[in-house]
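#struct-help
A.M.: can someone run this one for me? Single chain, 121 residues.
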Amino acid sequence: QVQLVESGGGLVQAGGSLRLSCAASGGIFSISAMGWYRQAPGKERELVATLTSGGSTNYADSVKGRFTISRDNAKNTVFLQMNSLKPEDTAVYYCNSRLIRTGSVYFNDYWGQGTQVTVSS
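D.P.: on it. Structure tokens below:
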């Protein structure tokens, strides 16, 4: 069974940094893309950053220049380096992976359980 396990969230002051990690495991044949989404209280889940297997990145305008997504393909792990954090970055951050399970021919989306990031002013 595919699992995405996130780590690295926490409480940080405005202007500080955090690094999130997400490791995918469990019968994975191929990963097309991995990324991060976030959901603040009372708001819809939104894209933060994605990274394809080919190396293409996509960032939300609100995080461009502050956040960097990277990936360790050998370990099926994606990272999100978050610098110059702002109180409005406070949210639960979810890892996402679009992948094919062993024995399947279809790509499906999988989600982690979420990790809380809180930025104090």
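A.M.: thanks! The longest strand covers residues 28-39.
D.P.: also worth noting: The radius of gyration is 14 Å.
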